[in-house]
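Hey L., structure's done. Input below.
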Amino acid sequence: MADIRAALADAARRLAGVSDTARLDAELLMAHALGTTREELLLRRLGDDVPDGFATLVERRLAHEPVAYIVGERAFWTIRLMVGPGVLVPRADSETLIEAAVAHFADRPGPARVLDLGCGPGTLLLAALAEWPDASGLGIDSSTTALLYARANVDRLGLRDRVTLREGDWGEGLDERFDLILANPPYVGIRDTLGADVSEWEPGEALYAGTDGLDAYRAILPQIPHLMAEGGVAVLEIGSRQAEAVAAMAASAGLSPVLRHDLAGRPRAIVAT
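Output:
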């Protein structure tokens, strides 16, 4: 019987046709099948027998199902989030928003109140609350499925006394002001092409925003000045070709926008005060 080392090599070879991170995918799936961490797998388990169920996990990945859905969770910033079908998979690029928020509050008291517009499984909101233990927050999403995952993550992280979740349409109906406003809205144009991992699995309402991908910003940005506390900041994720258009919308709403790039040097967020 082949050991785990050989099975990983074979799985990575097969997955190379569907993933740019084939070896990592194989290792995460193997760790999940073993019920252990990737670190433990690589350090101590490579010579073990291949666990039952690993082959099935690989087949699911070959069908383009996201690894996060298969294993049921995804790491983001300093936390781990439960995810599954019906929610947007947290991505490392979105950590740029938390980095921008940390930079804004570096020389001033941290935010007392945080708002996450389109919170999904709680990605940005819960990462921010992990960063600022004295803060509390509100997460808004129009998806009941996303809110179910968000509530599960709130409980998993022990944040029930600091978080309120609400079904709604962006900031409509809110009469509170927030020190930090975060949003990763849909920003893909309906004619744009996405990889099968995304287009066939992740929820379209969290991805697409009209013909040009800007509809969500048209709804959100005029609301920001009425939701932002004095000295506060709003950080919105953007598509790499949308910086100029979104910055112009922010300025038209009376905000002062600054562009923030991700680690790959791509425009990733608008930071508005």
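DSSP finds twelve helices and nine strands in the chain. The two ends are 61 Å apart (CA to CA).

-- N.
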